[in-house]
Amino acid sequence: MANFRLPPPYTIIRHLGKGGIGEIYLAYHENLQKQVIVKKVKDHCVDIMDSRIEVDILKNLHHRYLPQVYDFIQINGGIYTVMDYIPGHDLEYYCNRQMHFSEEQLLFWMQQLLEVLDYLHTRKPPILHCDIKPANIMIQEDGDVCLIDFNISIDGESNKELIGLSSQFASPEQAKKAEMILAGKDGNRIHLDGRSDLYSLGAVFYFLMTGIYPDAKRKDLIELKYLDHGYSNELENIVTKAMQPDIHKRFKNAKEMQKALEHLEQWSSSRLFKKKVLKATAIAAVTVSVFGGTLFYRSVDERKYRDFADVADIYVEKEADCDYKNSETSEIEILYDDGIAILNTKKYQKYLKRDSQRKEEVLYAAAKAALFLEYFDQAEDLLQEAVNCDEENAELYRDLAITEASLGDYEQAENYLREAKKRNLKEEDVSLIRAEIDLLQGDVQTAYFMAEKVLENTSDDLMFHTVHVFLQAAQESGHMEEGISFLQQKAESMPVSSQVFWLRSAARMALQMNETEVAGECLEKIAETGLVLLEDRYNLDAVYEEQQNWDKSIKILEKITEEYKTEYRACIRLAYVNYQWNNDRRPADRTYKQVFLWYEKAKEIMEQSGINEEKDADMVQLKKIISQLEELGWRAE
After folding, report:
1. Residue 28 backbone phi and psi in degrees, to 5
2. Start-end ranges of CATH 3.30.200.20 in the chain?
3. Domain spanning 10-84, CATH class
4. Element spanning 127, H or E
5. For 242-283, how does the pLDDT look when each residue is reduced to its tens digit (9 = 90+)?
């Protein structure tokens, strides 16, 4: 029994448990003659929430998949809310009992939850739930859902301190905001919107499908496509899109996700093939310790170069020579890691304090690599420190404006843009930042045409970023076909060395549209120039696989293994392709020998490189295929 009493017409029956920010009790409402839920807000949470605002909002909500709020009570400093009692169990109850749900049931619940999220997100102002998880999804006695226990947020702002409590299902931006608040930092720069709730919804269904907690902080979370979860490829793709770490790559809103469910047949992998550009990921991560003195610039012989100035000169020169348009992503990753290593190596730090000009050069070089890799938080820190070394560099403020826009802080982006213009920033650079801000604020039409204009005459160091904005604006504004044509025309007017960049950009856009024929043409032209990257080869292989051109696919993957001796992923792909190729043959003609051989080769390379097979999702799935073949009597002989 509770250690407090409520005024009539309420009588506390018993304690039920805990919600996100309070104790929950079952009570009886004498006037309504029905059971209700009473939520007592925890004492330490009272000061950080505006309960009256929360309850006034909730009382005005009327939806069949939400509990109705009846009352708000304050007694002796305590705060209580009274709402509908929902008979039934929450999804966590069923998950704890290892219940398996049919796909039909999951689709039914997802449709209902999207209906209620669309209702909440389209209120004025929009209302975010901010704590979607199995424990907050009740399954009523009639089988319908009821979304309970809000950590309510009005337009991503109110009750900021309560955001991100259920970290296993919180979106990356929600978790980041909570971390900043807990660290005593201003979390206002991270603005949440309905897409954060959509991420959490996707995370819930990932958990229901796999039994794996999808904490956004996990680095080893395996994508659904690599798991044997037993559900359709279409549902898999919808959940995967909802859970994209990049908020701009998720569904725009609940209504769009609802439409995806209504047209489920359009979400098969064959229809969506390679909407995301394949990237080479064969580089082992380099761990950099902020306080450690053990790392150093690995391209320099430490015994020969003991002077910081020498190391800084070599690093800055290497960055200046880096062709961002035509470099492997892995090369930029190494460049970034090298810069961080220099900045964090103890024996160089005393030089950094004395030589602000060289420090600024190293900081800026590392920041440009971070921007290319979309490490926006790291880029922000590096650029701000660089500004402290050189307050008159317009390009530093330009890149800070780009970074803040990418992080969603448009006001700060405008501030940095003004500072850059004061320092005579070039007009095309100003236009790029405007396009970026327009894109992130949803004015995709303006962003597309402005980015197109910038691409006509922009500096090489901003080319890659401008194309990134152009591609995204084209996709969101419906100008994909025009965008591809524009990029192809640019390629035709350029010398061979510059053609590659434009062809590669056109291929990426074509892959996003599932225009594999156009993408293949662009990638084959790149291959003819001899300036082909590993990423290009993997993308061309993806095109050939989609076309089921197994011979060409095998040839290009074998070429990768010849030129990149430690590229185990190509070995895994060869095993997959040979597996698919044999599955298409008559049973009497099948031989899976090459599947086993390439599997063993991949294992060998991974072992030599110290890579854990169990941490690689592709390898985990391939091992399942090998086991299935062995059960059917196939062997490597």
Report:
1. -120, 130
2. 10-84
3. alpha beta
4. strand 127-128
5. 998 888 889 989 999 998 898 888 787 544 433 332 222 222
